[in-house]
Design goal:
The chain has helices at residues 8-25, 48-51, 64-71, 75-86, 93-112, 124-142, 150-161, 197-205, 228-232, 235-244, 316-321, 370-384, 413-428, and strands spanning 175-182, 209-212, 215-224, 253-262, 265-268, 270-272, 274-276, 291-293, 309-311, 329-332, 335-338, 348-351, 360-363, 391-398. It is α/β, with parallel strands linked by helices. Strands 2-3-1-4-14-5-10 form a 7-stranded mixed beta sheet, sandwiched between helices. A 3-stranded antiparallel beta sheet has the order 12-11-13, with no helix packed on it. The chain has a two-stranded antiparallel ribbon with strand order 6-9. The protein starts with 7 loop residues before the first helix and ends with a helix.
Length: 431
């Protein structure tokens, strides 16, 4: 359990985050979801995620975000960015955002893989620090005629702070595993200290080389946003395309990982082409038009016809036979299909057999939310590139039973991370 923070860094960070909290809580109470996008005191629009920076820690006046940034060892990165931004030329701000985003990702990975058990595999500081830096950029853009530079700077910060910049392999003869995790998500008002074991897995493995009896396995990881629009902006394809490209430094395994709602690890057999529009981390969902077939990623190779289902090519038998513990490991073969393109609920049928030709996907084995779509997009691109030699699929983690209400580290997280590592190693070294 992290202890209360002391010192100048804590005061500086709390002051900065509290300034954001003061500016937004006049529009909505800290625990209430805003009905519209208010503005900060400089006039820049804050989205629903950014407004959560003001959520309190355990009912106190201290913002949870500040505590998580500090406990994740990322306070200096945020403070350094804020200081550099104050003197930045408008034309250089996108480069500054990219450099600072890369520094944030590197610091989060270093902390997560370090010996400090209070930071081991910690994913929440990265999430909150990115949001704080986004707000800094919005405030900067509102000071003078800088708005035209904002979108490019925000995009640079997002990609760099999610590990996109260093997700490359060397021509080293090792087995290469490209994987993705997800930001935390869920009921923010009930449990604002949300963590995501998939994010912890990504941070735990990024950049690591693990020796096995059959040779070394190298991991690269990225962190995907829980955001429909980001997926439409091809965040998944941009993350995985370098590892799927032909060459000596490509991936042998491409795995998307997300938090499941189960007691076991589940290897999803099928990804479906349908998205159900369940609200994302910024509240966007069905009413914004996200209940539809997964759009094509026009900037990348795509199949001539949208496949309704894509089957995993992960070595499922080897992963299950590896006998990893303490959770069960199973293949989830369930799919839901519809007879019409409208996916009318009364025409949807679910089964454990392979979907019949001509049926419309209503749900993949892992559902119809962003986790399913991450598997679908990666493997649609993999197929379009003709990379049948790269094994691809999706792994859902068990759902931790222990709630993450504050800054405490869930006791189950290490077991989930360790077993996921063992499963990915089994997949990477399977014949």
């Amino acid at each position: 359990m992290p202890t209360p923070f002391t010192g100048a860094r804590r005061i500086r960070l709390l002051t900065a985050v509290a300034a954001v909290a003061v500016s937004v809580t006049g529009c909505a109470s800290p625990g209430a979801a805003p009905s519209a996008s208010p503005t900060d005191d400089a006039g820049a629009a804050l989205n629903t995620e950014e407004l959560r920076l003001s959520l309190p820690l355990d009912g106190s006046d201290e913002p949870l975000s500040a505590a998580m940034i500090e406990s994740g060892g990322l306070a200096d990165v945020v403070a350094d960015f804020r200081s550099a931004l104050a003197d930045a030329d408008a034309g250089d701000v996108a480069d500054l955002a990219e450099e600072s985003g890369q520094a944030l990702w590197t610091a989060a990975v270093t902390a997560a893989q370090g010996s400090d058990q209070e930071r081991a595999d910690e994913d929440r500081g990265l999430y909150w620090a990115r949001l704080a830096m986004r707000v800094d950029l919005k405030k900067w853009a509102s000071d003078g005629d800088r708005t035209k530079h904002l979108d490019a700077a925000l995009a640079a910060l997002e990609d760099a702070s999610r590990g996109y910049g260093d997700a490359v392999f060397a021509s080293d003869g090792a087995r290469h595993v490209m994987l993705s995790g997800f930001d935390p998500f869920g009921d923010w008002e009930k449990t604002p200290g949300l963590s995501n074991p998939a994010a912890s897995i990504a941070l735990h493995l990024d950049g690591r080389t693990i020796d096995t009896p059959t040779g070394p396995v190298v991991f690269q990881a990225v962190m995907l946003p829980v955001n429909w629009q980001a997926f439409d902006d091809e965040a998944v394809e941009r993350a995985f395309a370098p590892a799927l490209a032909e060459g000596d430094a490509d991936a042998d395994l491409a795995v998307t990982v997300s938090q499941g709602g189960y007691d076991d690890f589940e290897i999803e057999q099928w990804a479906g082409a349908w998205r159900d529009g369940t609200p994302d981390n910024v509240g966007a969902g069905e009413k914004e038009g996200y209940r539809e077939e997964v759009p094509f990623a026009s900037s990348f190779p795509q199949p001539d016809t949208e496949p309704q289902f894509i089957e995993t090519t992960l070595p499922v038998d080897a992963m299950i036979a590896a006998g990893t513990t303490p959770y069960g490991v199973k293949l989830n073969p369930i799919t839901c299909t519809a007879t019409t393109a409208e996916r009318a609920d009364d025409g949807v049928q679910c089964d454990t057999v392979a979907p019949v030709a001509g049926a419309f996907a209503s749900s993949g084995s892992g559902g119809a939310y962003l986790s399913n779509e991450s598997m679908y997009r990666v493997n649609r691109l993999r197929q379009a590139l003709g990379r049948d030699d790269i094994r691809g699929g999706h792994l859902h983690t068990p759902l931790p039973k222990e709630p993450t209400k504050g800054t405490e580290i869930p006791s189950e997280r290490r077991a989930i991370v360790d077993q996921a590592t063992a499963l990915l190693l089994a997949a990477a070294t399977a014949g």
